[in-house]
Design goal:
The protein is α+β, with helices and mostly antiparallel strands and 224 residues long. The chain is built from five helices and ten strands, in the order αβαβαββαβββαβββ. Strands 1, 2, 3, 4, 5, 6, 7 and 8 form an eight-stranded mixed beta sheet that branches. A two-stranded antiparallel sheet has the order 9-10. α2 links the parallel β1 and β2.
Length: 224
C-alpha cells in the first residue's frame, strides 16, 4: 500500500527539525533520535526504539490538518500538470494535482540539560529569520517551497516530579506548514485523433462525408 502524501509531509517535517537542531542537541540519527508520537507516549516509544530510556531526543505529532481556502486554486486541483513520460515508448505520461492544506504540528524537545533547553528556545525563535521554509523536490525534479509559521514555545518540564520520574526538561514548540498535498496520476499519451464529418441534412440517415486521421508528433525527451 502506497504512503499518503501527508505521511510524507510528516517525515519531511521530522527530517527538517532534525537538521535544524541536531547540533544543539548532539543528535546523530533521525531514526533513533526522534519519533512521530504524541507527548504522552513519546518517552515509551523512544525507549523501545533505543532499548533504553535516554533523554536527548525530540518527538512530533500532527494535531490538525485543514483545507486552506485562502490558497485555493481550482485549476491546480482539477487540471493535471503534466510531468514526464513514464516509459521508454512514451505512451504513458505522469501528471499531478495539488490542494492547499494547513498542517499544525506540536514538537517536543526532550533533554536532561537545562542549558540545552534554552539554546533550543533561542534557535526556535531565530528560525523566523533563518529560512522559515520546508523545501522539497517532488519526484526529485520539481521544487516546492512551503512556508512555516511558529507560535509560542512552552516549557512543559515536570521538575516537581524529579524525585519520582527523574529530572528531564521538555519544551513544546508549535509549527504550522502551508502545505500542498499532491496526487499523482498516469494517463495515456494521445498519439492519434480521428475526425469524422457527417452531412446531417438527411435527418434519418446522416451521410459520412469523410474521415481524417491526425497523427500527433511525440516531443523529444525533456520537452513534455
Amino acid at each position: 500500500m502506497a504512503d499518503s502524501f501527508v505521511k510524507i509531509m510528516d517525515r519531511a517535517v521530522q527530517a527538517l527539525i532534525y537538521a535544524k537542531f541536531k547540533t544543539v542537541m548532539n543528535l546523530t540519527d533521525v531514526n533513533t533520535d526522534s519519533v512521530i508520537w504524541p507527548r504522552d507516549v513519546a518517552f515509551r516509544k523512544i525507549s523501545e526504539k533505543r532499548g533504553r530510556g535516554v533523554v536527548e531526543f525530540f518527538s512530533l505529532w500532527r494535531e490538525t490538518m485543514n483545507f486552506d481556502w485562502s490558497r485555493q486554486r481550482t485549476a491546480v486541483a482539477r487540471i493535471e500538470q503534466y510531468l514526464a513520460f513514464t516509459d521508454a515508448e512514451r505512451t504513458d505520461i505522469r501528471s499531478a494535482r495539488a490542494i492547499p492544506a494547513t498542517l499544525d504540528y506540536n514538537v517536543w524537545f526532550w533533554t536532561k540539560d537545562y542549558d540545552i533547553l534554552q539554546q533550543i528556545s533561542e534557535e526556535y525563535m531565530w528560525w523566523r529569520h533563518t529560512d522559515p521554509n520546508l523545501n522539497l523536490n517532488y519526484d526529485d525534479t520539481y521544487p516546492m517551497e512551503m512556508d512555516l509559521h511558529f507560535g509560542e514555545a512552552v516549557d512543559e518540564s515536570a521538575v516537581e516530579q524529579m524525585f519520582d520520574r527523574g529530572l528531564y526538561f521538555v519544551l513544546r514548540a508549535p509549527i504550522t506548514v502551508d502545505a500542498w498535498l499532491i496526487k499523482d496520476f498516469s494517463v495515456k499519451t494521445i498519439k492519434k485523433i480521428i475526425i469524422s464529418v457527417y452531412d446531417e441534412t438527411v435527418e434519418e440517415n446522416p451521410q459520412l462525408l469523410f474521415t481524417e486521421t491526425l497523427i500527433l508528433p511525440i516531443p523529444p525527451s525533456g520537452e513534455e
